[in-house]
UniProtKB/TrEMBL annotation, chain B:
Keywords assigned: Cell outer membrane, Membrane, Signal
Native species: Parapedobacter defluvii
Pfam families given in the database record: SusD-like_3, SusD_RagB
Family label: Belongs to the SusD family.
Membrane among keywords: yes
Top-rank taxon, per record: Bacteria
Name of the protein: SusD family protein
Domain RagB/SusD span(s) in chain numbering: 340-456
Membrane is among the record's keywords: yes
Segment forming the signal sequence: none
Start and end residues of each SusD-like N-terminal domain: 25-228
Length: 1073, 459
C-alpha cells in the first residue's frame, strides 16, 4: 500500500501547499547517501495522517504536528525511514535515505525518446541499472547483460555483439536478426566495443510493441537503449577511479574431441601410404604429412632404419596441443582503468571521463587496447532553457600476429598433424609442412630459390598485423520548457568512424619468401623483390548525422487526469565510404620506402605450376548512403492513477528499396492499456498490495538491405583483363518489395507482496511477423541461379513467422537488515514457428543438416534440428543398420538418395526455448557477494564423431575424432557403442547413415555457474584519508558447468569449439573522492 | 496563453520542413555503384561482364562425354562430383540431385543478354548508332551461343523428320522471371538461334574491340555450326565464306615455340589472330592434369611433321600424355571460336558437295600453318568420301578439347558410314555409348524439372 500512498501524496501535494503557514510548518531536505536530492519521496506523519512529497530539490514542508509524532519517509528506490518528531524541534531536517537495490519499480525507463517512471508505462521493458551492470567486469557493455536482462537471450555464450543476441526470440527469416542498439537516444551502428562500460548509466531493453514501436521500422528485433552517465545539477565534484585486472586461464586445447593421438594418426598415415593411391605426387606439389615424407625417405633409402626409428620416436612422443600451449598460447590479461569526474552547479553540470583498456589475448602476439575520452556539459542559462553538448572519442588498436592451433594445418591431405613440433630442444623454431611437398620445398631452396619452409614461431615475429580505429561522437540537445506543459526539444548527433589496418611482412617472412619463389621465372629472374611487403587494408570511414525535433506536452488536470504526449520527426543519414587498400613491395620499414611499379597484366609463369599475375593494386572504392526519415507521435493518458492508456504512431521512409517504394514508407503504431488493480476501492487482497495489469498491441518493422525493386546492375569499373567498363546484374527486379512487419501482443502483470518480500512481473507475448522476406524458388532457366550474383531476386515478402513466449522475473528479499540476502529469478520461455513459407522442395538432403542452409518449413521452428533415424550397428559388420523400404540394406548411397525430407525426424531445436538465471546477492556491512547461475533447457545439439573411413580420406576432408577409441571392433561391441567400425576407406556409411542420425544428437540442457562477484566497500572517511569510498572487488567468470544433460564431456555452449571460454578472474579497486 | 501558441508553432516548424523536403531526401541511391540500366553504356557494360559471359561456358558435359581422353583405373571413383563420376560412363543417373552448372550458367548468360536487349527501348542518336547496334548484335549472339550449347547437351541431335516433334529447350526471350519456362519444339529452338544470329551478323562489327566481345566473323562461325547441325551445308558455306572475309587469318605453328610448356600466349586471345571469340569452360577435376590421358588412337594419327603433336601434347613423367595446347596459354581448356574452324567447316561442306579440289584447298590452307613447312606436302583426296574422311580427322586433331567433339559425334552418328560407338573401359568394366542411344542427350537438371515442370528427356 506504500506506493499507493506515495502517489496519493503527489495528488495532494498541490492542494496541501497553500493552507500551510510558516509557523506551523516542518521543513526538511531528503537526500540519498550519494548526496543526490530526492524528488518525489512520500512524507507522512503517522498519527496526524498528513502527507506531502518532496520537490525537485528534495525539499518538503508539512504541517507541524501538535504532539509527538513519527515522520515516515517513503521512496520507491529507498528504504522506508521513520523519524520521531516533536513540536518545536530544530529545522530544517536533513534526512538521508538508504538505497534499496534492484527493486522492481524503482526505475525510470528511457526509450530514447522520453523518460518515464516505470509504473507509468504500459509496455514491457527490462531495465538494468548501474549497480547491476557494475557487478561484472569487462570491456564490452552487451556482455554484461548475459543472464541479467529478462527476455534477452545470448545465442552465442559470452557474446559481445548485437548479432549474438535475440530479444524475445526471432521475428524474421532472411533479414537481420540483430536488435537495434540505441546510444544516447540515437541508433548506434558503430562498433559496440568502442563504448566504455564504465561510462554507462543504465541499459533498457524495449521488448513489446508499446515500448519499441516508437523506433518504428527497425524495432522488429527489439531495441536495446544504452544511456551514458550524465552530470547532475547542484552536486559537488565527484572523482571516481576504477581499475581492474582480469586474468584468463590458458585455453584447454585438450577439450576438443576432434583429434587423435600422434601414434594413431601415424598408424593411419602409414596404412594409407602402404595402400597407395592416397599420396599421389601432383604438379602443384600438394603437401604430404611429415610422417609420410619420412616413410618415403626410408623406402627410397635416404634414411637408414635407425635414423627413421629415432625420428619416428620423436614424432610419436609429440603432441601438437602441448606444443601449441607452450609456444602459441598464454594466460590472457585484461587491464582496465577508468577515471571520471562529475558534478554541477545551479545551472551547469558536467561529466568528464577517460578510460584505458589493454588486453593481452590468450594467443601470443594478439592483443588490443582502447582509449576513451568523453566530456559532457549541460547549461541552463535561463530556467526554461537547457543546452547539453557532449563529445566522445574512442581510439582502438589491435595487433593480430598470433597463430592458433588451426593455423598449423597443412594443405592438401595433411590436415592438422598431431605430431608436429614447433621448436627443437633448444627452442629454435622448426618448420612444419605447409603448402608444398617437403622435398619440393627443399630442392627448390637448394637450387637457388629462397628458403621455402614455413616456421610458425618465426612467423609470429616476422609479420606485423595491426589495426587502428577511431570513433568520434558528438551530440547536442536544446530543450525549452514552457510553464504551460509544452517543451520543445531539438537534438543532433554526429558520429564518425574510421579505421585502418596494415600488415607488414619482413623480407624473411614466409609470405615474402613464398611470393618471391612463386614468381621466380624459369631463367631464375625474379619478379617480386626479396624485400619487405606492406599491405594496407581498405579504409571504410563512416559518418552519420542524425537530427530530431520533438514537441513534448505534459499536463495534469482535474486532479485525476494526466496527459503526456510527444510529436516529432527525425532524419538520419549514414554514409559509408570505402577507399582502396595498397600493397607496397620492397618496403623498407625504417626508411618507409618501397615500390609498386610492376607489370600487373603480365601472366607470369609461376612455381610450382601455372600462371599468375602480380596482384594488381586494389580499386575498391564504394559509397553506401542510408537515409531514413521518420515522423512519430506518442501519448499516454492516465486516469486516477489507476488506468493508463498509451498509443504511438510512426511513419518510416528510407532510400533502401528504390524510389517508388521509398516514398510509400511504412506506418506503424501501437496501443496499450494498464490497470493498477490494487488501487481500486474494491481491492482487499492484502497479501499482494501491488498488482497491475498491462496489455499492449502494436507493430514494428525490420529491413533487408539485400533486395531491390528494380532491375539493377552494379558497375564494376574497367575489367582487369579487357579494360572495358563492365557491370553485373544484381537483381532482375522485384516490384512488390516492402518492409517486414512484426505485430506484438503483450499481456503483463506486475506485483509485489507485503513489504516487497516478493516482487516481480510476468509477461506473455505473441509476435506475428508477417511480410517476411523469403526465397521464392525460381527455376534456373530464369537465369536466377544458386550462387549467382542476382540470386537475391528470388527474395519476396510473403513468409510469416510466429513467436510466443513468457518472461518471468521474481525478486525475493530473503533477509533484510545488517545482513541481507536477495534472490532474483529470471525464467524465459520462447518458441518460434514458421507459419507461411514455400519450402524449396528440390534441396539436397544434406542442406537440412546445416543450420545455415536448413530450409524453413511451415509448422517448424526456424531453429529446428533434423536427424535421420538410428537403428544401431550391425552385429557382423559394425556398420549402421539401415532400411530401404522395409528391407535391411547396406547400400548407403541408395539409402541416402531415397531418403526424402519428410522422413526426417525433428530432433529438437538448437536455441534453448527455456532459459533463465538465478542470482543471489548477499551483503553484510560493506561486503557484498553475488553469484549468477544460468540455465538453459529444451534444446539439442549435433555432436561430432568418428566416421568410418573419414580419417582415410585422400583430400582435405580428413576427420579425426576421439570416438575412434569407442568404435565397433568386434561383434558384440554394438551393444555398448554407436560408433561404427573403422574402415580403410571412406565407406559413405559414416556420412550417409551415421553423421546426421539421432545417435549423434545430444540434449543441450545445462546449468552453469556463470559468474561470482565479491566486493568490499570501505567508508574511507572514517580512516581519515581524503577518499569518500574505497571499493575492492573480485569477479570470476566462466566458472564452469554445474550440471549438463549430455555425458560426452561436451559443453553445449561450445560444442564445436576448439576450447570452451577460459575461466577469468578479475581483481579491482574503485576509489571515490 | 499567447506565448505558448507561438512556441508550438516554432516547434512544429522543423517538422513541416522535414515533411516538405522528405521526398527528395529519400531519392538518393543507396549504393553509388548501383544503377537501373538506362544508357547504351550501361547495357554494353552488362555484356562486357566477362566473368559471366566468357567464363564457365556450357560445354562441360560435352567435354566429359566425348572420346578425346580417358582415365586410368582408380581415378574415377574418387571423383567427388556425381556429374563427373557418372558423366564419364554416361550413367543413367547423372546429377544425383545436384544442380547443373552448364545449364545454370547458360541461362544466367541468357538473362544478361535479355536484360541488355532493353537497349532497344532507347532511340539512339546517329552518333550512338554503332554502339547501339553492337549491344543488340552482341546480346543476340550471346543468347544464340548459349541456346546452341544447351541444345547440344539437352536436346536430341537435329533430324529434319522429327524436329517439329522433338523437344527443344526453354526459349527465354526476356528477363522477366515470372514468365514460365516450357519446352517448345527443337525446330523452333533452332529457328530462334538462326534468327538471332542472322540479325546479329548485320549489327556486329567486322572486328570487335576485344576478343571477349563477339564480332561478325565469330557470329559466322556459330552460324556455321548451327547449319552443320541442321545438315544445311549451303548455308554453312555461305556464312563461313562471309566469316572468312574478315576472320580467316591463321597462326603459323612454324613460328610458335612448340616446345614451350604453354606454346600459346596467355593473353585471353588478344594476340592470337585465330581467336575470334574468347571463352573457357569451368575447370573439371576429371579433365585436370592429375587424371587426364589424351586418347591414344588420336595421338597416333598426328604424323611426325605435324607440329600440333608437340604444340598440343607433352609426355608426363608417369607415362601419360597430357594436353598443353590450349589457346588459354595455361592449364585450362579453351572453348571459344576460331578461324581454323571456318576453314574446316568450308572444307567439309565443299567435300560434301563433291568439290574435292576446293575442299582440299581449304584444308591445306589450314594444314600449311600446322605442319613443318620444310616437310609439308599438301594432302590430296581421290574422291569426295575420302576428302570428307580426311577433313573430319583433321577437324578432330585440330579442335582437340574445344568442346566441339560431342556435337560432331552426335551429328555424324546420323550418317551410318561415319557413326561410331564410344567405349570406356575402367576398373574392369566396359561402358559403351552406341550411335543414337538416348544417352547422347543429357537429362534436364533435376531441380529445373521440379521447379518448372519441364518434360524430362528419355534416357
Amino acid at each position: 500500500m506504500k506506493s499507493l500512498r506515495i502517489i496519493f501524496c503527489i495528488i495532494l501535494f498541490s492542494v496541501c501547499w497553500l493552507p500551510l503557514s510558516a509557523q506551523t510548518v516542518l521543513e526538511g531536505e531528503i537526500r540519498a547517501q550519494s548526496g543526490e536530492m530526492l524528488q518525489g519521496a512520500g512524507v507522512r506523519l503517522e498519527k496526524a495522517a498528513r502527507t506531502t512529497v518532496s520537490d525537485a530539490n528534495g525539499y518538503f514542508r508539512i504541517a507541524l504536528p501538535s504532539a509527538n509524532d513519527t515522520l515516515i519517509i517513503t521512496h520507491m528506490s529507498f528504504r522506508e525511514t521513520r523519524i520521531p518528531v516533536t513540536p518545536g524541534m530544530p529545522q530544517p531536517l536533513l534526512i538521508i535515505l538508504e538505497r534499496v537495490e534492484n527493486t522492481l519499480e524503482e526505475v525510470e525507463v528511457n526509450t530514447g525518446f522520453y523518460r518515464v517512471p516505470r509504473e507509468r508505462v504500459t509496455g514491457s521493458f527490462t531495465h538494468v541499472d548501474n549497480s547491476v551492470l557494475n557487478r561484472s567486469v569487462g570491456g564490452n557493455i552487451l556482455q554484461r547483460l548475459e543472464g541479467i536482462a529478462s527476455g534477452v537471450q545470448f545465442t552465442q555464450a559470452n557474446g559481445t555483439s548485437p548479432s549474438d543476441i535475440r530479444v524475445r526470440g526471432l521475428a524474421t527469416i532472411e533479414s537481420s536478426e540483430e536488435p537495434l542498439i540505441v546510444v544516447d537516444n540515437f541508433p548506434y551502428e558503430g562498433d559496440i566495443n568502442a563504448i566504455n562500460p564504465n561510462d554507462i548509466e543504465s541499459v533498457t531493453v524495449l521488448k513489446d510493441a508499446a515500448a519499441s514501436s516508437i523506433w518504428g521500422a527497425r524495432a522488429g528485433n527489439g531495441v536495446i537503449v544504452i544511456t551514458t552517465k550524465q552530470g547532475h545539477y547542484n552536486r559537488r565534484s565527484h572523482i571516481s577511479f576504477n581499475s581492474n585486472v582480469t586474468v584468463g586461464d590458458k585455453p584447454d586445447l585438450f577439450y576438443s574431441q576432434r583429434r587423435l593421438p600422434s601414434d594413431v594418426v601415424m598408424q593411419i598415415e602409414e596404412e594409407k601410404y602402404k595402400q597407395g593411391g592416397h599420396y599421389l605426387p601432383t604438379e602443384n606439389q600438394s603437401p604430404f604429412p611429415e610422417y609420410v615424407e619420412l616413410l618415403i625417405k626410408r623406402d627410397e633409402g635416404e634414411l637408414s632404419e635407425e635414423e627413421f626409428y629415432s625420428m619416428e620416436t620423436v614424432l610419436r612422443n609429440t603432441d601438437v596441443r602441448e606444443e601449441a600451449l607452450r609456444y602459441l598460447y598464454q594466460q590472457s590479461l585484461y587491464q582496465q582503468y577508468a577515471l571520471n569526474v562529475s558534478g554541477g552547479g545551479e545551472n551547469y553540470s558536467y561529466y568528464l571521463s577517460s578510460g584505458y583498456d589493454k588486453n593481452r589475448s590468450e594467443v601470443i602476439g594478439n592483443g588490443n587496447s582502447r582509449l576513451n575520452l568523453s566530456l559532457q556539459n549541460t547549461f541552463k542559462p535561463i530556467e526554461e532553457l537547457e543546452l547539453s553538448v557532449g563529445g566522445w572519442y574512442t581510439q582502438s588498436t589491435g595487433t593480430n600476429n598470433g597463430l592458433t592451433l588451426s593455423n598449423l594445418r597443412g594443405g592438401g591431405a595433411v590436415y592438422l598433424s598431431p605430431y608436429i613440433r614447433l621448436a627443437d630442444e633448444n627452442g629454435a623454431p622448426l618448420p612444419i609442412i605447409h603448402e608444398y611437398r617437403l622435398p619440393y620445398a627443399e630442392s627448390e631452396s637448394a637450387s637457388g630459390l629462397l628458403d621455402w619452409q614455413y616456421r610458425p614461431l618465426d612467423e609470429i615475429r616476422l609479420a606485423d598485423h595491426s589495426s587502428l580505429a577511431n570513433q568520434l561522437r558528438l551530440n547536442g540537445r536544446l530543450r525549452f520548457n514552457t510553464k504551460i506543459g509544452f517543451s520543445v526539444e531539438a537534438s543532433y548527433q554526429y558520429v564518425q568512424d574510421n579505421g585502418r589496418s596494415t600488415s607488414y611482412y619482413d623480407p624473411e617472412s614466409y609470405y615474402v619468401r613464398n611470393l618471391v619463389n612463386r614468381f621466380t621465372q624459369p631463367n631464375g629472374s625474379t619478379v617480386i623483390p626479396h624485400g619487405g611487403i606492406l599491405v594496407g587494408g581498405s579504409e571504410v570511414p563512416t559518418t552519420s548525422h542524425s537530427g530530431r525535433g520533438q514537441l513534448n506536452y505534459r499536463r495534469e488536470f482535474g486532479g485525476v487526469h494526466e496527459l503526456v504526449a510527444l510529436l516529432g520527426g527525425e532524419a538520419r543519414q549514414r554514409v559509408q565510404e570505402q577507399y582502396p587498400g595498397y600493397t607496397i613491395y620492397n618496403y623498407d620499414s625504417e626508411l618507409l620506402t618501397g615500390s609498386a611499379n610492376y607489370n600487373y597484366t603480365q601472366n607470369y609463369e609461376i612455381r610450382p605450376i601455372g600462371r599468375a599475375r602480380v596482384s594488381p593494386p586494389s580499386v575498391a572504392r564504394n559509397r553506401y548512403t542510408d537515409r531514413y526519415l521518420s515522423y512519430f507521435a506518442n501519448m499516454s493518458y492516465g486516469y486516477g492513477q489507476r488506468y493508463i492508456l498509451s498509443a504511438s504512431a510512426r511513419w518510416d521512409g528510407s532510400n533502401l528499396f528504390g524510389v517508388k517504394t521509398n516514398q510509400k514508407g511504412t506506418p506503424l503504431w501501437s496501443a496499450g492499456f494498464s490497470w493498477e488493480t490494487s488501487k481500486e476501492g474494491f481491492y482487499r487482497f492484502e497479501l499482494i498490495p501491488y498488482l497491475r495489469w498491462r496489455v499492449t498491441y502494436g507493430s514494428a518493422g525490420n529491413i533487408n538491405k539485400r533486395v531491390s525493386t528494380y532491375p539493377t546492375i552494379f558497375h564494376a569499373g574497367p575489367d582487369w583483363i579487357t579494360g572495358l567498363q563492365n557491370a553485373w546484374i544484381s537483381s532482375a527486379g522485384n516490384p512488390s518489395l516492402r518492409w517486414e512487419q512484426v505485430n506484438t501482443l503483450n499481456i503483463g502483470l506486475d506485483f509485489s507482496t507485503k513489504n516487497k518480500r516478493f516482487s516481480g512481473s510476468a509477461d506473455y507475448y505473441i509476435k506475428y511477423a508477417s511480410d517476411l522476406i523469403g526465397a521464392d524458388y525460381l527455376a534456373p532457366s530464369t537465369g536466377i541461379i544458386t550462387g549467382g550474383l542476382a540470386s537475391n531476386t528470388n527474395l519476396i515478402n510473403y513468409a510469416n513467422l510466429q513467436t510466443h513466449g513468457l518472461d518471468f522475473q521474481l525478486t525475493s528479499v530473503n533477509v533484510q537488515g545488517a545482513f541481507s540476502w536477495q534472490t532474483t529469478v529470471l525464467a524465459n520461455y520462447v518458441r518460434n514457428e514458421i507459419t507461411h513459407y514455400n519450402t524449396n522442395e528440390t534441396l539436397e538432403l544434406g542442406s537440412y543438416f546445416n543450420p545455415s542452409t536448413t530450409p524453413p518449413v511451415i509448422g517448424r521452428s526456424r531453429d529446428v534440428v533434423y536427424a535421420q533415424p538410428w537403428h544401431g550397428l550391425d552385429h557382423n559388420s559394425g556398420l549402421p543398420v539401415i532400411y530401404v523400404g522395409d528391407e535391411q540394406s547396406t547400400d548407403y548411397r541408395a539409402y541416402w538418395d531415397a531418403f526424402t525430407p519428410d522422413q526426417l525426424l525433428v530432433a529438437g531445436v538448437s536455441v534453448p526455448p527455456y532459459h533463465g538465471s538465478i542470482r543471489n546477492d548477499f551483503s553484510w556491512r560493506g561486503i557484498s557477494l553475488s553469484a549468477l547461475i544460468s540455465w538453459k533447457a529444451g534444446y539439442v545439439f549435433r555432436r561430432g564423431s568418428m566416421f568410418p573411413g573419414r580419417e582415410y580420406e585422400t583430400h582435405g576432408a580428413v576427420d579425426y575424432h576421439m570416438d575412434y577409441f569407442k568404435r565397433w571392433q568386434q561383434p558384440g561391441d554394438e551393444k555398448h557403442t554407436n560408433v561404427p567400425t573403422g574402415a580403410g576407406a571412406n565407406t559413405l556409411a559414416g556420412s550417409y547413415a551415421y553423421r546426421y542420425t539421432q545417435a549423434l544428437i545430444s540434449s543441450g540442457d545445462l546449468i552453469r555457474l556463470q559468474d561470482v562477484s565479491l566486493s568490499y566497500t570501505l567508508d574511507a572517511r572514517r580512516l581519515g584519508i581524503p577518499f569518500q569510498r574505497i571499493r575492492f572487488y573480485a569477479y570470476a567468470r566462466n566458472l564452469g558447468v554445474l550440471w549438463k544433460a549430455n555425458r560426452d564431456g561436451i559443453d553445449p555452449d561450445f560444442a564445436d569449439a576448439e576450447f570452451p571460454a577460459p575461466r577469468t578472474v578479475a581483481l579491482g579497486l574503485q576509489l571515490t573522492i | 496563453m499567447k506565448k505558448s501558441i507561438n512556441w508550438s508553432i516554432v516547434a512544429l516548424l522543423p517538422l513541416v520542413c522535414l515533411l516538405s523536403c522528405g521526398k527528395t531526401f529519400l531519392n538518393i541511391k543507396q549504393d553509388a555503384k548501383q544503377v537501373v540500366p538506362a544508357t547504351i553504356a550501361d547495357y554494353q557494360a552488362i555484356l562486357d561482364y566477362q566473368l559471366v559471359m566468357n567464363e564457365a561456358s556450357s560445354v562441360g558435359l560435352a567435354l566429359i562425354g566425348s572420346d578425346e581422353y580417358y582415365l586410368l583405373d582408380g581415378r574415377l571413383s574418387t571423383l567427388s562430383q556425381p556429374f563427373q563420376r557418372n558423366g564419364y560412363v554416361w550413367a543413367k543417373e547423372v546429377y544425383e540431385g545436384a544442380e547443373v552448372q552448364d545449364w545454370n550458367q547458360a541461362y544466367q548468360r541468357i538473362l544478361y543478354a535479355n536484360m541488355a536487349l532493353g537497349v532497344r527501348d532507347i532511340t539512339p542518336e546517329p552518333s550512338e548508332r554503332q554502339a547501339w547496334d553492337n549491344v543488340i548484335g552482341s546480346a543476340l549472339f550471346f543468347r544464340a551461343l548459349n541456346f546452341y550449347h544447351l541444345v547440344q547437351l539437352f536436346c536430341k541431335p537435329y533430324d529434319p523428320v522429327s524436329a517439329n516433334a522433338d523437344l527443344g529447350i526453354p526459349l527465354r526471350l526476356d528477363y522477366d522471371v515470372s514468365t514460365p519456362s516450357t519446352r517448345g519444339s527443337l525446330e523452333a529452338t533452332y529457328r530462334q538461334i538462326v534468327s538471332d544470329l542472322e540479325t546479329a551478323i548485320n549489327l556486329l562489327p567486322h572486328t570487335a574491340a576485344n576478343k571477349h566481345r563477339p564480332s561478325k566473323a565469330a557470329a559466322c562461325v556459330l552460324l556455321g555450326r548451327v547449319f552443320l547441325q541442321r545438315g544445311s551445308y549451303e548455308n554453312v558455306e555461305h556464312y563461313v565464306s562471309i566469316g572468312l572475309e574478315s576472320g580467316g587469318e591463321l597462326v603459323d605453328f612454324n613460328e610458335v615455340d612448340t616446345a614451350a610448356r604453354y606454346p600459346f600466349p596467355a593473353d585471353y586471345g588478344q594476340n592470337n589472330p585465330e581467336v575470334l571469340f574468347y571463352s573457357r569452360p569451368t575447370s573439371l577435376t576429371l579433365l585436370a592434369t592429375g587424371r587426364f590421358n589424351a586418347d591414344s588412337v588420336l595421338l597416333k594419327s598426328y604424323s611426325p611433321e605435324d607440329l600440333r603433336r608437340s604444340a598440343y601434347f607433352y609426355d608426363n613423367d608417369d607415362g601419360r600424355v597430357l594436353f598443353k595446347g590450349s589457346y588459354l596459354g595455361s592449364a585450362g581448356y579453351f572453348s571459344g571460336l576460331t578461324s581454323s574452324e571456318l576453314w574446316l567447316m568450308r572444307a567439309e561442306c565443299r567435300a560434301r558437295s563433291g568439290d574435292v579440289p576446293a575442299a582440299m584447298e581449304d584444308l591445306n590452307e589450314l594444314l600449311a600453318h600446322r605442319y613443318d613447312r620444310n616437310q609439308f606436302v599438301p594432302l590430296t583426296a581421290s574422291n569426295a568420301e575420302e576428302a570428307l574422311d580426311i577433313i573430319l580427322l583433321e577437324r578432330r586433331k585440330e579442335l582437340f578439347m574445344r568442346g566441339t567433339r560431342w556435337e560432331d559425334l552426335r551429328r555424324l552418328n546420323k550418317e551410318p558410314r561415319l557413326a561410331r560407338t564410344v567405349v570406356r573401359v575402367i576398373d574392369g568394366q566396359r561402358y559403351e555409348l552406341p550411335p543414337n542411344d538416348p544417352r547422347w542427350v543429357w537429362p534436364i537438371p533435376d531441380n529445373e524439372v521440379d521447379l518448372s515442370g519441364l518434360i524430362q528427356n528419355a534416357r
